[in-house]
TrEMBL record, chain A:
<dbReference type="InterPro" id="IPR011041">
    <property type="entry name" value="Quinoprot_gluc/sorb_DH_b-prop"/>
</dbReference>
<dbReference type="InterPro" id="IPR011042">
    <property type="entry name" value="6-blade_b-propeller_TolB-like"/>
</dbReference>
<feature type="signal peptide">
    <location>
        <begin position="1"/>
        <end position="19"/>
    </location>
</feature>
<dbReference type="InterPro" id="IPR054539">
    <property type="entry name" value="Beta-prop_PDH"/>
</dbReference>
<dbReference type="Pfam" id="PF22807">
    <property type="entry name" value="TrAA12"/>
</dbReference>
<protein>
    <submittedName>
        <fullName>Sorbosone dehydrogenase</fullName>
    </submittedName>
</protein>
<keyword id="KW-0732">Signal</keyword>
<feature type="domain" description="Pyrroloquinoline quinone-dependent pyranose dehydrogenase beta-propeller">
    <location>
        <begin position="42"/>
        <end position="425"/>
    </location>
</feature>
TrEMBL record, chain B:
<dbReference type="GO" id="GO:0046872">
    <property type="term" value="F:metal ion binding"/>
</dbReference>
<keyword id="KW-0349">Heme</keyword>
<feature type="domain" description="Cytochrome c">
    <location>
        <begin position="27"/>
        <end position="118"/>
    </location>
</feature>
<dbReference type="InterPro" id="IPR009056">
    <property type="entry name" value="Cyt_c-like_dom"/>
</dbReference>
<protein>
    <recommendedName>
        <fullName>Cytochrome c domain-containing protein</fullName>
    </recommendedName>
</protein>
<dbReference type="InterPro" id="IPR051459">
    <property type="entry name" value="Cytochrome_c-type_DH"/>
</dbReference>
<keyword id="KW-0479">Metal-binding</keyword>
<dbReference type="InterPro" id="IPR036909">
    <property type="entry name" value="Cyt_c-like_dom_sf"/>
</dbReference>
<keyword id="KW-0408">Iron</keyword>
Length: 428, 138
C-alpha cells in the first residue's frame, strides 16, 4: 500500500513537472536508483549521490537554473535522445525522468534561455524556462547542419561564449591523415585535405538557422578530435582537450617501445585563440621528450621539430590514450577555494595502451590562476572502471564522459557505459 | 562397438584437420595467436572484448561465428567503420585491409584462433579457403 501511495505521488509530481513539455519515458522511485550503489572515490569532505542509472550512452549533460539535469544520449532510450532528470524532493536523486529529441549525439548546453543540443552532424536549439526547467519542444530550431559525420570521431561537442557565438568540435574521421587510414606504412597526406571540413573547432552564430561551413568560421584547426571543451568565463576564451593519435608503437616499433606507445602521444589541453593551429596531423606531443615533434607519417624521427615549432602549444599534457571526454571550468562557491576557476576533466579510458594496462576512467582536477594552470593535475574522482589494472576497456563498469556544474555548485558526472549520473557535493 | 564410432569420428576429424592445416588445429591456433597479438590485439584487445562504440568485440558474435567467407572478406578488404551492428550498437573505427600484409596461411590461422578463443567454438578456416576467396575478390 505504501508503495502504491508513493508511486501515485511520484506520478502526480511527474505529471505536474512535465505536463507541458515532455513525453514521459519512465517514472521511478528513489528505491530503484539506490539499488546501484556505485562507489566512486572522492577527496575527503566530498560525497556523491547517484542521480539516475540505466540511461544508456549518456554523453554530455547540462543543468538548468532550477536544478533539472539534461543529458544527451548517443543511443536513443525509448525513442528519445535528450533526457530530463527532475529531483522533486531535493535529495539529489531523480524522481522523474522524461525525454524529447529523436536524434543521437553528444553535445548539450544551456545559454540565455536556450537549450542547445547536437546530433553527429547538426545543432538544434529549444526555448527553455530555466526557473521551471520547462523546454518548449515545439520551438526546436536547426541552427547548424551538414557537418562531417564519417563515423570515426563524429561527436559534435558544444560551448557558447558571451557574444552570441556557439563553438562546435568537428573531429577528423582519421587517425593521422594517412592516404589509407590506420594502415601501417601508408604515408601522411600533405597538405591534409581533411582539415578543410574537420579536425578543428568551428564558430557559428547561436541564433541563426541552417548554418553550415559557408556561414561558419574555422576558429581553430589542427585538432584531431576534441570531445571535452568549455568556454572559460574568467578570461573569456575557449579551452579544448584533444584526443591524441593512435598506433605509434604498432606502426613505428623502431621509434617507440610498447610502453612508450601506451604513454604517447600526450592528451593535451589547449587554450585557443581565433586562428590557432594545434598541429594535427603533422605534429604530436611526445611525453618522453616533452616537446611537440613531427609525426613519423610526415618524416618524424622523435627528434625533428620542423614545422611544429610554429604550432599552438598545449598548456597541460597528460599520459596517452586516456580519452578526455569532458572539460569544465568550476565557477561555484560550494567546493573549497582551490577549486574555483580550475578545470575538471573527465577521462573516458581508451584502448591503444593494450597490451599495457588501460588507464583513465577518472575525473581529474587542474588548479588554475588567471586562465593558466597553477599546479599539477590530480585525480579527483576515481573507481569508475571497477578494476585496478590489467582489464580491457570493455570490462569497465562505468566510463566518465560529461561534466556539468549545478546551480548549487555541485559537480555532475555522466557515464556513457550504462548511463549513470552522479552528483558530487562538498561539506566541511 | 559404441566406443569404436566416436574413435572413428575423432580419427576422421583429426585426419581432415591434418590435411587442411599444417600441424592440425592446435598448431593453427598457436600460430594464429601470434598473428593476433601482432596485428589485431591493439584494437580488439587481449581478451577479444573490443572497445565499446569503436572496435567490435570478437566474442560470440554472428560476425565471428557465422559465415566464414564474410568474416574472411572483412580481414582481406577491411571496413570503413559503422558497418558492424551488434544488438543496435555500432562501431566507428575503420578496419584496415590485410590483403597485402597477411598471407593466406596467416589469415586462416588468425581466424581459426579467433573462432576458438575468448569462449568461441567454431570450425577452422583453411588457407585454401582464404586463397579461393582472395582470388574471387580480385
Amino acid at each position: 500500500m505504501k508503495n502504491t501511495l508513493f508511486l501515485a505521488c511520484s506520478l502526480a509530481i511527474a505529471a505536474t513537472a512535465f505536463g507541458s513539455d515532455s513525453t514521459k519515458v519512465k517514472t521511478h522511485s528513489t528505491a530503484e536508483v539506490t539499488r546501484d550503489a556505485a562507489a566512486i572515490t572522492l577527496p575527503t569532505g566530498f560525497r556523491s549521490v547517484v542521480v539516475a542509472t540505466d540511461l544508456g550512452r549518456a554523453r554530455h549533460l547540462t543543468v538548468a537554473a532550477n536544478g533539472d539535469i539534461f543529458v544527451k544520449l548517443e543511443k536513443l532510450k525509448d525513442g528519445k535522445g535528450i533526457i530530463r532528470l527532475h529531483d522533486a524532493n531535493g535529495d539529489g536523486k531523480a524522481d522523474a525522468t522524461s525525454g524529447f529529441g529523436n536524434y543521437v549525439g553528444t553535445g548539450i548546453c544551456i545559454k540565455n534561455g536556450y537549450l542547445y543540443a547536437s546530433s553527429n552532424s547538426d545543432v538544434y536549439r529549444y526555448k527553455i524556462d530555466e526557473k521551471t526547467g520547462t523546454v518548449d519542444i515545439g520551438s526546436e530550431q536547426k541552427i547548424v547542419t551538414g557537418l562531417v559525420d564519417n563515423n570515426q570521431h563524429n561527436s559534435k561537442s558544444l560551448a557558447l561564449d558571451n557574444d552570441g557565438n556557439i563553438y562546435v568540435n568537428i573531429g577528423a574521421p582519421s587517425n593521422c591523415c594517412q592516404v589509407n587510414d590506420r594502415v601501417k606504412g601508408s604515408p601522411g597526406q600533405d597538405p591534409c585535405p581533411i582539415l578543410e571540413k574537420a579536425g578543428g573547432i568551428w564558430q557559428f552564430k547561436a541564433d541563426k538557422l541552417n548554418q553550415s561551413y559557408a556561414e561558419g568560421v574555422r576558429y581553430a584547426t589542427g585538432l584531431r578530435n576534441v570531445v571535452g571543451l568549455d568556454w572559460n568565463n574568467e578570461v573569456n576564451e575557449l579551452y579544448v582537450m584533444q584526443h591524441g593519435r593512435d598506433m605509434l608503437f604498432q606502426f613505428y616499433p623502431e621509434l617507440f617501445t610498447q610502453k612508450e606507445g601506451a604513454e604517447n602521444p600526450a592528451e593535451e589541453l589547449f587554450r585557443i585563440k581565433k586562428g590557432a593551429d594545434c598541429g594535427w596531423p603533422y605534429c604530436y606531443y611526445d611525453n618522453g621528450k616533452q616537446e611537440k615533434l613531427l609525426n613519423p607519417e610526415y618524416g618524424g624521427d622523435r627528434k625533428k621539430v620542423d614545422r611544429c615549432a610554429d604550432k599552438t602549444k598545449s598548456i597541460v599534457q597528460f599520459p596517452g590514450h586516456l580519452a578526455p571526454n569532458g572539460l569544465l571550468f568550476y565557477t561555484g562557491n560550494q567546493f573549497p577555494a582551490k577549486y574555483r576557476n580550475g578545470a575538471f576533466i573527465a577521462f573516458h579510458g581508451s584502448w591503444n595502451r593494450a597490451p599495457e594496462p588501460q588507464a583513465g576512467f577518472f575525473v581529474v582536477f587542474v588548479p588554475f590562476k588567471d586562465g593558466m594552470p597553477s599546479g599539477k593535475w590530480e585525480v579527483f574522482a576515481d573507481g569508475f572502471s571497477g578494476f585496478t589494472s590489467g582489464a580491457s576497456t570493455g570490462q569497465a563498469k562505468y566510463r566518465p564522459c560529461g561534466l556539468a556544474q549545478a546551480p548549487d555548485g555541485s559537480l555532475v558526472i555522466s557515464d556513457d557505459n550504462n548511463g549513470t549520473i552522479w552528483k558530487v557535493s562538498y561539506s566541511k | 562397438m559404441k566406443k569404436v564410432i566416436p574413435a572413428t569420428i575423432i580419427f576422421i576429424i583429426a585426419t581432415s584437420f591434418a590435411l587442411q592445416q599444417p600441424g592440425g588445429a592446435k598448431a593453427a591456433i598457436a600460430r594464429g595467436k601470434t598473428v593476433y597479438e601482432n596485428v589485431c590485439l591493439a584494437c580488439h584487445q587481449p581478451d577479444g572484448s573490443g572497445v565499446p562504440n569503436m572496435n567490435p568485440p570478437l566474442i560470440k558474435t554472428k560476425w565471428v561465428l557465422g559465415d566464414k567467407k564474410a568474416l574472411t572478406k572483412i580481414v582481406l578488404k577491411g571496413l570503413q567503420g559503422g558497418e558492424i551492428d551488434i544488438n543496435g550498437d555500432k562501431f566507428h573505427n575503420p578496419m584496415p585491409p590485410q590483403e597485402s600484409t597477411l598471407t593466406d596461411q596467416e589469415i586462416a590461422d588468425v581466424l581459426t584462433y579467433v573462432r576458438n578463443s575468448f569462449g568461441n567454438k567454431a570450425s577452422m578456416v583453411t588457407a585454401a579457403e582464404v586463397k579461393a576467396l582472395r582470388a574471387k575478390l580480385k
